Amino acid sequence: MSSPYPEAFTAWVLSLPLSLRAKRAVERMISQGYVTTADLNQMGYDHPPRAIADIKDAGVEIKMNMVFVAGRRMARYELVPKISDGSMTGRRALPKAFKEGLCAQWFHRCAVCNGKFTTRELQADHRIPYRISGESPELSLEDFMPLCPSCNRAKSWSCENCPNWERRIASECETCLWGSPQEYLHIATVPERRLHLSWSGEEVQEFDRLSARARAEDATVAEVAKGIISTRSGNA
Q: pTM of this prediction?
């Protein structure tokens, strides 16, 4: 099947430095003329808008319509066959060795939840969203951090709903949980602090006891844990 897009436009889009998820989405649109949320889900992307955002970041215009597929209402995306002036360079493709070095630096732990993952599972994420500050002239490990799939999705949602998403003030991102999880002042401009805890191995028994106490007190595990921490820190 021939592409519904002009050959020159197709060549231009494919020459852009797209992320892997963006490239796969573009290839699907070039081959069938469009890509739907369902298509992106089947390709393994459980947060489809991020793949589309990557394409837009590279300077490609996207047209979106809502359609019904198999009784489900979903987004359908099409490329707008218009070659930009090249003022946007798009996201830089990260070398495999760079990602491996980043993950090793963090001992293969997610920078936010501290969970341990394989290199394949972790995402090399911009500390400051690409939409806010773009790419730095040279690759630096300090500009990235590894995020697990769950925290990566949470960051995407939080950033896209943050007032700074339109203001684009990089310094606000630098003091946010999603930019500096080890030392931050706010979460998406809201004064807030979070503590991520996990129990593994023999520690699971401790969590089960905490859970049983929470049920007895008609409270959540988080509420009971916060109460214990508050009491002990107050007596310190």
A: 0.64
